Amino acid sequence: MSDMGLLHYFLGLEVHQAEDGIFISQRKYAKDFLSKFGMLNCKPATTPMNINQKLQQEDREEMADVNRFRSLVGGLIYLMHIRPDIAFPVGVIFRLCGFTDNDWASSGVITWSSKKQAAAALSTLEAEYIVATSAACQAI
Known about the structure:
The chain is of the alpha+beta class. 34% of the residues lie in helices and 9% in strands.
């Protein structure tokens, strides 16, 4: 273990330690995030989304790059913790989906859990029910 001095950055958080307190911001993370998506010179808006606009599942537009979209939404969710004004638009574009699988199939997961079950399943169907219940509890 080595002493590297005062903490300046941690998980995208900018930390400034002074005699009157510790100040945390995400200014650098937000700036890098805007730069990554080519919006560094965009104008700020008091309302980041028109609340009367109706979004549709399919609007005959070209499909977005899924990985880029997920990266964008994930970054916005991370920023949403210090910017509650963007919570509504982020909630509109991010639909929570949950998937369960008890046979170790490889799939893209958001969260992963591996633990000994409290009950022994007597069939594959019962094991699926146990996993689905666990996932629902975690989502709630």
